[in-house]
Amino acid sequence: MFKNMKKNVLNYRNGIIKWHCLNCVRAKSSAQPKTKTYSHTILTPNTNFPVRASNSIKERIYETAQFSALYNWQRTNLKGPEYVLHDGPPYANGDLHMGHAVNKIIKDINNRSQILKGNRVHYVPGWDCHGLPIELKALQKARKASKDTNFTDPVNVRNIARKFALETVENQKKAFRSWGVMADWEKQCYLTLNKDYVQSQLRLFYDMYEKGYIYRALKPVYWSPSSKTALAEAELEYDSQHKSCEVYVAFNVDKPPEILHDKLNGKPLSAIIWTTTPWTLVANRAVCYNPQMKYSIVELSSRPGDLYLVGSGLIEDLEKVLGVEIKRFMEFQGDKIAGATYRNRLVEGSLPFLEGDHVTDAKGTGLVHTAPAHGPEDFLVALKYNMDVECNVDELGKYTNLDPGLDGLPVLGEGQEAVITRLAESVIHRGVYVHSYPLDWRTKKPVIVRASRQWFIDTARLKEKALAALGSVAILPPSSSPQSRLGFRSQLEKRPYWCISRQRAWGVPVPALYANSDVIVHRSVIEKLCDLIETQGTDVWWTCDVKQLLTDDVIKEYNIENEDVCKGKDIMDIWLDSGLSWSTLGGRTADLYSEGVDQLTGWFQASLLTSLALNDAPPYK
């Protein structure tokens, strides 16, 4: 390939092979060559085809190939059975990336293969347009552009977010179109912010409420102080190397178990608990034990004369953690602890020891600090024993309604330190515990568990139906089916409830009215709202007078003529938005849902649960 091969020499230096033209080397010191040094020595084919396609060339390719015409042509002319691929809505919060390309091209391959078989393809692209990520990104952009805008007014926030989402949809649509993905991009797309989609979602919400699948309750939920909203499991990501503050705390037992009567010889007895959330100790209402486990009375070498109650199977681990020798005095069955009480210097009065099935000897002390406002298992214990649940942490993740020394302190910062300081000598060990911990998927900051009144879907009622329905669904490719099916089943089995309310502005409102102690969710109110949306747009829940939503039958049923009625401020979880997208199929069951495996915890699951609740069948084959 090289001309004048004899005039070229091979030079090897520092592991790099270089070709040098001898004439060029000789002339290097005197003058620079007028022609390029190497390009003229290599024979390459010539072509007029551009290395990169300009926008005009892309447009010409698109028009010549008639990608847009193909979709409608096959709908009109093919006679085979209809093949439905339902499009999982991409999120309208930024530019497309390689993942979007893989997603859409795989779908396009599926659709074109069906057309080659003579089948009529039904494929309507969609976009997920609501939610916190869009709201945050839109507000961030708006703040840079203007400092005069009111960013707390919900209508302003919605206008900013809507504009951002629509612009993003158009940009993404142009890219999808330029890739040659077959669809009617101009006339047949669904957006979760469109008024017809919102109206449908509101009506479907009521249908699920009427069937008893949706309810409002005080429950501990994942809460993001950085976003000031509740989060679902699908909105979390986990930091496997998160460092939490762990403490071992000794609670003074003021009423020992009966089995210890006359055996303590006047020595004080304390129960040792372990926690990685010391900030929850102000909400401690009980200590749980396992009646099937063995417990021991022990003495620590570092605190001679004091006796402690711990799980027998954890004594050796406790010795290593505390760095002390532990002497055992007696052992007894856990059920003997029943009726004992203790005192926590952060809480007034005596507190009970209660049975708890969740207590194990895998870690800790065999005695579990229980704060019903800050843990799902703790909450179940409270329900079992009819305990009051009170949350003293506000939406910002700060203590509230306690005392001036704690109120206003962030629980994940100064508040936790203040709690540990107040416990004083009750803390017998403090350390750092490295473990997996949930973060807000958008802010990347830690979340907490916090009891608040939220709206839920009762997934426990749907669980068995969902597991049975999953058996009729094919999971592709076959090589991944067993593992994927097992993962899908495990996600369904461990989900106790689905929190569907969020404390933000950009989304579909939870259509609930509140009159004193009454929560009003009524078909006529929703129909009134849908009528207003038709004429005034989807912001009307925030702009209309509540009287415009009331009907005579609602006023009479709830006797609210002389009472103040207010609209709720919650919006629906965006997983509920997209989970109801099967409603755009016009009664069809999709032959295929095609998305990444991460949707086993997201869209696949939300779609299955909502479709089973309303249609008694999965939305996909």
What is the typical, i.e. mean, pLDDT?
A: 88
By DSSP (H or I, 4+ residues per run), the number of helices equals: 17
- CATH topology value of the largest domain: Isoleucyl-tRNA Synthetase, domain 2
What is the CATH superfamily label of the largest domain? Valyl/Leucyl/Isoleucyl-tRNA synthetase, editing domain
Major β-sheet, in short? 10 strands, mixed
**In angstroms, what separates the terminal alpha carbons?**
58 Å
The coarse silhouette is globular
Radius of gyration based on Cα positions? 32 Å
The low-confidence parts are 1-30
CATH class of the largest domain: Alpha Beta
Number of strands: 26
CATH architecture of the largest domain: Alpha-Beta Complex
Structural class: alpha+beta
> What's the helical proportion of residues?
25-40%
